[in-house]
Amino acid sequence: MPELPEVETIVRRLRPSLPGQRIRKAEARLPRLLLGMEARRLEKVLRGKTVNAVRRRGKYIALELDESILVVHLGMSGQLTFSPPDAQEDPAFFRTVTGLQKPLGVHPVDPHTHFLLHFESGARLLFRDPRTFGKIFFIADAKAFDRHPRLGLLGPEPLELEAEAFIASFPGWNSLRPVKALLLDQSFLAGIGNIYADEALHLSGLHPSTPIRDLAAEQKVEVLRAVRAVLEQGIRNSGTTFSDYRQPDGTLGLNFDFLRVYGRGGSPCRGCGTRLEKSVVAGRGTVHCPLCQPRPPLTGGKAGGRRSIAKPGRGGGAET
DNA sequence: AATTCGCCCTGTCGGC
DNA sequence: TGCCGACAGGGCGAAT
Q1: Which nucleotide's C1' sits nearest to the alpha carbon of A171?
Q2: Strand C atom within 7 Å of A158 CB
Q3: Is the C-beta atom of A172 closer than 7 angstroms to strand B?
């Protein structure tokens, strides 16, 4: 699932080649991926526009055009790849065999390729999305970007905020929602998905079900620091390839082997060797270490059934 | 009003 | 061996 580090990697890799490219033709092959505009109309509007810059907001990719912006969300399985003018098609482009082979050319335009930008240079930008959870939309007035319904409610960028001020300004600390739900909430912080939420919680030693209101002041700081750390690591490793994610040249992200918990349910914790537990929190598959991330003492409400395994290690702040 | 749930969609995987 | 149900999940609208 492309999250902030994957999207950031894609944006960074597109930057050397996309700006300056003029659109000769746009192809919208799957109309239901488009928001707010018919396929033919979008194709017409994009023709002749030049890409001036590429940037990211949360998990959204923004192609800044002349006075407008084309926005792409990769959903679950979206891939955005750039084909140089002289590239040869490589039928194995998207296949992951060993993870070691680097695709040499351009992926073929297959039935999952739903959106294409053909540039006057002969280069192409291809959007491929097998599960079709992605979204593409056009913002006519670039200045309205931050007011778009999909973008206006996004929280701050986790890598750019000042922790103390952000914590002081966030109004939702008294909620009973699990902290994992908070991390997944794009109006809290923009760009975190299921992978990096689990990673950050493990790094900060928090049980994913910990009610937000039980977080001690230092735990709030710590979880923000952990979020930043796992996102930065993801970016350093060019993103996490679980199945579909690719960099714009088709190569895999390298962060998979560095994951602490995500996708490792049943395997030993890298920190203590305890068997990692798989569960469902906030409606999402969740993996955590029962020793490194002890369930906090129940403050009330639901019957937990399962007793907490280890002592909370630090104060814990059971009372409020 | 704040949360949770159901749904969209298709490739992959485990079980029988 | 082959089929098929379960599963994965970002984000939105419906339901509670």
Answers
A1: B2
A2: no
A3: yes
Q: Of A61-70, A234-243, A285-294, where does mean pLDDT reach its minimum?
A: A234-243
Structure tokens at A306: 């399962």
Cβ atoms of A146 and A208 within 8 Å: the answer is: no
- Is-catalytic flag, A3? yes
Of A12, A25, A150, A284, the catalytic one is A284
What's the Å distance between residue A130 CA and nucleotide C4 C1'?
20
- Radius of gyration of the CA atoms of chain A, in A: 21
How is chain A split among helix, strand and coil, in percent rounded to 5? 25, 20, 55
- The residue type found at A3 is E
- pLDDT for the residue numbered A112: 87
How buried is residue A316: exposed, middle or buried, by Cβ count under 10 Å (0-12/13-18/19+)?
Answer: middle
* Residue A181 CB in 7 A reach of strand B: yes
Helices A4-14 and A217-236, axial angle in degrees (round to 10): 40
CA of A178 to C1' of B2 (A): 13
Classify the phi-psi angles of A27: left when phi > 0, otherwise alpha if psi is within -120 to 50, otherwise beta.
beta
Angle among Cα A131, A249, A142 to the nearest 5 degrees reads 70
Residue A292 in contact with residue A205, Cβ under 8 Å? yes
Give the tens place of pLDDT for each residue, A22-35.
Answer: 999 999 999 999 99
